[in-house]
Amino acid sequence: xxxxxxxxxxxxxxAMTTLGIGGAARYFADVGTTEALRAGIxxxxxxxxxxxxxxxxxxxxxxxxxFPGLVLRMSIGGIETxxxxxxxxxxxxxxEEWDSLVERCVANNWAGFECLSGIxxxxxxxxxxxxxxxxxxxxxxxxxxxxLDLVTGNVVELNAVDCxxxxxxxxxxxxxxxxxxxxxxxxxxxxxxxxxxxxxELQGFLAERGVNDPSLADVRDAVLTIRRRKAMVIDPADADxxxxxxxxVNPVVTVDELERIRxxxxxxxxxxxxxxxxxxxxxxxxxxERAGIQRGYAHGNVGTSTKHALAIVNRGGGTARExxxxxxxxxxxxxxxxxxxxxxxxxFIGFESSA
Length: 355
Ligand SMILES: Cc1cc2nc3c(=O)[nH]c(=O)nc-3n(C[C@H](O)[C@H](O)[C@H](O)COP(=O)(O)OP(=O)(O)OC[C@H]3O[C@@H](n4cnc5c(N)ncnc54)[C@H](O)[C@@H]3O)c2cc1C
Known about the structure:
Elements: H1 3-6, E1 8-12, E2 24-31, H2 34-46, E3 51-54, E4 60-62, E5 67-74, E6 79-83, E7 87-93, H3 98-107, E8 110-111, E9 132-133, E10 136-137, E11 142-149, E12 155-159, E13 180-191, H4 200-208, H5 216-229, E14 252-254, H6 255-265, E15 272-274, E16 279-282, H7 284-290, E17 298-299, E18 302-304, E19 312-314, H8 320-338, E20 347-349
Parallel strand pairs: 2-5, 3-5, 4-20
Antiparallel strand pairs: 1-2, 6-7, 7-13, 8-13, 9-10, 11-12, 11-13, 14-16, 15-16, 17-18, 18-19
């Protein structure tokens, strides 16, 4: 379908997001080809309308007033593979479901994605925040991506270094936010490779079950089971999964800052995970609970998940306004108690125009 055929007016966005909150897009179209994408961009530009590129809607908070421009949902499909002997290059269209791709690669015994099982959303969004979980990140396997540069109008090929990946971030979330629309992503996986079992919680889970030499499928199953317990896989029967996943990023601090925080708290129990010789990752969930916002905390029709303080959930009939209020409360409490400014993970859309 070309762009004009797909174009619709006043389309409710809430149902296209995992949080299930937010108003309507003034204009909306699904784009399944780069030609349709280009046509959509031109259409919005000629009308001076703001543009938003949507994937699976699992990492966005849409304002109650909606979005006053054109939302293009990336639906470019297709998966191609290139055999390199003990490695394989997998190129997927931005609109492919991420977890279906993971499932397929694990079934083929291709290592590199197994710990990223169960993460909702589409392929095109995985480079945006360098999607990661249970000790694995997109940046470890991504070799290149194809994107439309909205500044030059050219289709460009960027490699992993060009993407400037960091912990839950990349150039697409920082200096080049909203500049590139990702059309395809290529990953390099290891044929018959060993699974990555680096994350203590995953190691413990497998050890408890006596799985000493796990297969990729064992690790996928383990990750899915652990995630389900925390409502971190989308399950319509589990109201706690009506979220954007983690709402806050685990803060990374220097060893000196850590000492200062410990001193301030007069305790040693603060859980820390080393990221480098002089940097430590703190648990945002622990900080939030310590700051008095427990699991299951309610704020109007939203609240924290009953299984995880890091997730803000829509308990039914929630509004973006309530989400923002709860977010602000959490940020303030953690700042007051620990002097740590937590960063938020999701992307906020339509808030510039709302009251
Ligand atoms: C239950 C749950 C669990 C989650 N667990 C994790 C986790 O373990 N680890 C993790 O990292 N994330 C996690 N997330 C967050 C989310 O699933 C990921 O960030 C995912 O990659 C978002 O994909 P999406 O297609 O839904 O993107 P969307 O939410 O639609 O968009 C997110 C951002 O990416 C941009 N974008 C999307 N597609 C493109 C494209 N093709 N080109 C350019 N920009 C684009 C959008 O403009 C927006 O800025 C979780 C979310 C939920 C609801």
